[in-house]
Amino acid sequence: MLTLTIAPLHIRGQEAMGIPQPLDKNLEYAIRKIKGIKWSGTHKLWYVPLNKEQYHQLRETLKDKVQLDSTLLKQYLEQRKSVQPLMKSKRINRTRAEMLLLHPLNKDNLEAFTQYQELLQLKGYSPQTLKTYCSEFHLLLRLLVKAKVSDLTKQQVQSYLLWLLNKRHYSATHLHTTINALKFYFEQVLGRRREFYDLPRPQRPLKLPPVLAESEVVRIIQQTSNLKHRALLMTAYAAGLRVGELVRLKVKDIDSQRMVIHIHEGKGGKDRMVQLSQVLLTILREYYSKYKPKEYLFEGEGGGAYCVRSAQKVLAQAKIRAKVNKKGSIHLLRHSYATHLLEAGTDIRYIQELLGHNSLKTTLRYTHVSMKNIASIQSPLDRLPL
Known about the structure:
alpha+beta, DNA polymerase, domain 1, hpI Integrase, Chain A, 3 domains, 4-stranded antiparallel β-sheet, 3-stranded antiparallel β-sheet, 17 helices, 9 strands, DNA integration, DNA-binding, DNA binding, Integrase-like_cat_sf, Tyrosine_recombinase_XerCD
């Protein structure tokens, strides 16, 4: 008798049970008759919602025609019990938790993943770092299948990193992130000596940050007629904010008495203060009068903080309207803020403090893109008697 495997999957955010399309036309006809059955062109299989009623209906309808293998489904349901707390966590993206369900781990590695995620939270890592590290660590755990991650040797981990570099074509920056994610497990969770995991790291390429001309910033702002969107973009540029800092700003963080903006828990968990522009204060007062935000300065439709993706979309659409072709997200405004300050004569160490950089070396990148410095250099061609 033919065997069909019931596979767990997520379709449009809902749990489902999928069965492959059979070659037998009579069998396919029987499948089509199942209540609630649908065809997924993406996954190339038939599926029904994952629940007891649908499962029993599947078995009852097909019991005399085909043998159903429920191994993957049972494994998924067992895994779901262990991952359920992650699904409810505010600091774990639901998609990441669902990823665990769709790619079940062995018992030891699931326990390792849980310890890993809990320690990241206890140490106060940002939600973005938590999601990134968990994603990188989970990829390794999935590939191990039955092997225990705690048994891996330095040589095996290095081989894995080489595979990421050569086969999955990880960039140097991406590989650095993966190394840091794995180091956290071996050094922080397992408590191993640091030198045990002293992996060779690829040299990061020196990439200059993209920068807008002041005239381009003006066009972007002028082409944004929506008051809320204009206030958001002006705040990002006027204070040189990262997108996470921008959407987490609260009304109380705007100090109009001292003319400063308080940034709480920026990158690395650091607080800092930046100047509050008088022009920005005027637009923010107009914005506040119209929208009356309660807690967060820029609120989403249902209240709470504005969505990062929505903020990025605001800039992307504004660039199109302003006919600005330079690539970059909200961080493009931050790069432009720093470069324009430097070109205006602001001391590099002040810029370092305003940006919240740990190292002056990071801030010094902006000296490479400052047009004031570049424009002051005469080309050798201009000195030739042509």
